[in-house]
Amino acid sequence: QVQLQESGPGLVKPSQTLSLTCTVSGGSISSDNHYWAWIRQPAGKGLEWIGRIHVSGSTDYNVANAALQSRVTIWMDTSMSQFYLRLTSVTAADTAVYYCARDLGSGGPEDSWGQGALVTVSS
Amino acid sequence: ETVLTQSPATLSLSPGERATLSCRASQSVRSFLAWYQQRPGQAPRLLIYDASNRATGIPARFSGSGFGTDFTLTISSLEPEDFAVYYCHQRHIWPRSFGPGTKLEIK
What we know:
Shape of chain B: globular
Strand content of chain A: over 45%
Number of helices of chain A: 1
Oligomer: heterodimer
Helix content of chain A: under 10%
Distance between the termini of chain B: 35 Å
Largest sheet of chain A: 7 strands, mixed
């Protein structure tokens, strides 16, 4: 069964860059049938879909949140079985639990999730 | 963006009772609607995908129905571990979006 694990700094200063890694195990990150997604959740609030990447290098971002989309980059390293999230120019509004997840693409929604990584933006 | 609205915001029931949770989409998402359960401090868990299909390992007391803009998650007889927050999620219209959640609490 595929497992995902987020890692990265838990504290980022305002205006700096948030960087997270998701390590995939128990399944192939190179599967053509899957995408790999990032989703976040501010404390006590709902879920916000950030974006996803396919092994082909194709990416999709949340175009409904222009302020977020302009600051986000997702990429992957298949040799490491990892994919990554970079969010630049962070503010307190970016404080959230960040989840990585496997996205089944046309076959279904996000079905396997990491445990989540809390990132706090504060000076 | 497709906006998902969930009702009620909070549902208070007792173990053994039947729970009915609703999700309405601002435009048709056909059958591409999923339901997730989130317990405190945990990641969301996929319960139902494509409106009515139970995910692997999900008990039969969970069922989903609906098409287009109106969807329902039913829990036939509540167990203590079912008290959590439930989110609906659509993958038909770009970008994907989640509802605000329904909190199912013990009465």
